[in-house]
Amino acid sequence: MSGILSICYLVASVTFILGLKMLSNPATARKGNLIAAGGMIIAILGTIFLYENDGKKLGNYPWIFSAIIIGTIIGTLAAKKVKMTAMPELVSFFNGMGGACAALISIIEFDYLFRENKMFDSTFFSHVVPVGHYLAIIAGTIIGSISFAGSVIAWGKLNGKIKDFTFKGQHLFNLVVFALVIFFAIYTYQSDVKVANIPFFITVALALLYGVFFVLPIGGADMPVVISLLNSFTGVAAACGGFLYNNKAMLTGGILVGAAGTLLTILMCRAMNRSLKNVLIGSFGGTAKSAVGAKGAQGGYKEISLSDAAMVMAYSKKVMIVPGYGLAVAQAQHACHELEKVLEEKGVEVKYAIHPVAGRMPGHMNVLLAEADVSYDKLLEMEDANEEFKTTDVVLILGANDVVNPAAKNDPSSPIYGMPILEVELAKTVIVNKRSMKPGYAGIENELFFQPKTSMLFGDAKKVLQDLLAEIKNV
Asked: What is the pTM of this model?
């Protein structure tokens, strides 16, 4: 049986790798997801029916399958009902659940060892548990707990239920809490086996506290990076569980998630031209305030009518669309795709410019447009898009704000200074669709709105695009 189980784990590991590879391309992402899910089903069923410990199988099948059925129903309903605008918080919440599961695995393993050995008199925990085994337990516990608590806070901040919270000396407070986590983790291993559970659960509580205060001060504009980082934490915690039980599938999956999350975090930090330390300490977007009002030092802005916008776009040679969170809020991706098709029927070349941190999570805009069947070939990464803006007649910005703000290049006092942006101002005409002149997620004013070649087209993105479609068809 153990041989067959090893084959199941090997097959699962291969499907995880193939699935992750296929996720790198929107055309194969759905299939890759299904392949990886199929591998996970093989690993789960193999463990349930083939795993043996001292000749005994798992048993408890009613409990196991009841939990699987309940979890499957909840997960399916949540995924089907969630709006695209709420996808980031769903991802964050599910990631937190993964962290909690990884932490619980380690906690249960500790509790088992504690109960097995507490009958010994005056014996240190370190005398009955190998250091490598304990390191896997405590690392999974700490990292999983931080990921769980941090992800729940990130979920609350993304849906607006939890506000940014800072206080004087908060970073020092966080360092002290983390130092206490490490201290009690070491103290647990050196404690008398009869009372080792006390410092262990203090470690758990402190790790949860650290997870909360670790994410609380981080500003809204940095949340995509934080989600990616917490995702890598969950992967590492799961890998620790794989070490504990010598489970190849769990180990491989955890390593893949941890490595992918870490690489994505690094890439997103580069896209923002910021170090991870600066993201975690700088609170970008958390306390930033608008520098000027809509008619302050920047001067006034000008509006454009729907008919004028339609005329300009219909007689252009090239139009670039810059999607942002406003597009997601209005669920206007399908209307946007219709606009693309109508313009192309009139001989206009249409492409999309995608900033790496547009939206509320990594790849948010790519997923949004893929849902509307926008061709992946039309999606340009930031570097390629910036080259094309020079030959673009009209740029239509749909709800994007901070990722097109020239202050990132021109204003050393701006909190986003140095962040690479989409250089939309290089185009001949810029049309910005927003609900109002309120600042973006980073909380700072956008000087692009006040430039001579920029015109504002106010309103809900979906309604504006539908009206724009009607106007263009009549041109």
From this structure: 0.81
